Amino acid sequence: MRRKIIAGNWKMNKTTSETVTLINQLKPLVATEEADVVFCVPTISLTTAVEAAKGSNIQIGAENMHFEENGAYTGEIAPGMLDDIGVRYVIIGHSERREYFAESDVTVNKKVLKAFEHGITPIVCCGESLTQREQGVTIDFIRQQIKIAFLNVTPDQAKAAVIAYEPIWAIGTGKVATSAQAQEVCKAIRECIAEIYDTDTAAAIRIQYGGSVTADSAAELFAQPDIDGGLVGGASLKPDFGKIVNYK
Ligand code: PGA
Q1: pLDDT in tens, 139-196
Q2: pLDDT of residue 1
Q3: Residue pair 216/188 in contact by the 8 Å Cβ criterion
Q4: Looking at domain 4-245, does it have CATH number 3.90.1570.10?
Q5: How many other β-carbons are positioned within 10 Å of the β-carbon of residue 238?
Q6: If you measure from the C-alpha of residue 234 to the centroid of ligand 1, how many angstroms do you get, rounded to a whole number?
Q7: Active site (annotated) includes residue 166
Q8: Among the options 63, 96, 103, 166, which is catalytic?
């Protein structure tokens, strides 16, 4: 049985002092033995967040990182810097990074490989636009994203990875995918992993759904056979996140 993983993506929200307040507020609400709980917070608050989450079941993740060890990349954050402060997850290739910061499937792949080198679990994002869905190319597009993201990733690494399927039209729009739509794509992603690796790897990898998940939609989405939790934006900044984590 795959363990559920429910992650909050705070995006560019909350100052460092607000981060401490929100973590303290959410700590009792997200306490559970049944799922992994990750808060992905802005880089500037990572050290404070790791400290604030100590002694709880909350693990802290980053929202991005560079694929080089170090060097002349003004403003960027190296994987070793995350590792050093106890960050165990990193979101890679979120559609907002692809759209606003020109991240490509190739840079996503470099970052995924680098995260594994540092023992950081990547949450690898994929997802189609509304036009792609309407043109009927959703599965083709996502298979391409996955195949490039996992280039040269070993089976053992892939088993430990997390994929977040986030249809772009559902992110921050309040238009959540139906559980059938989300399941269809998550199943196709698992089949793609089976094709690249084998059925054991496909059975082990965890696939989240993301895009306007709320306390009302979480239970039905997370009950789908190929959906192993969620990547939650807006609703992760509210006490509602506790209800999403305890969705059953
Ligand atoms: P949302 O964001 O839940 O606010 O739609 C999800 C995400 O972008 O990860």
Answers
A1: 999 999 999 999 999 999 999 999 999 999 999 999 999 999 999 999 999 999 999 9
A2: 80
A3: no
A4: no
A5: 18
A6: 6
A7: yes
A8: 166
Q: Are 111 and 130 in contact (CB under 8 A)?
A: no
Residue 235 CA to ligand 1 centre (angstroms): 8
Task: Name residues of the chain where pLDDT drops below 50.
Answer: none
Instruction: Show me where the domains of the chain are located.
Output: 4-245
Q: Can you spell out the DSSP letters for 76-139?
A: ---HHHHHHTT--EEEES-HHHHHHS---HHHHHHHHHHHHHTTPEEEEEE---HHHHHTT-HH
Report the distance separating Cα 41 and Cα 91, nearest Å.
Answer: 10
Nearest to 37 by CA among 5, 2, 61: 5
Q: Using CA positions, which residue lies closest to atom 3 of ligand 1?
A: 233
Residue length of the chain:
248
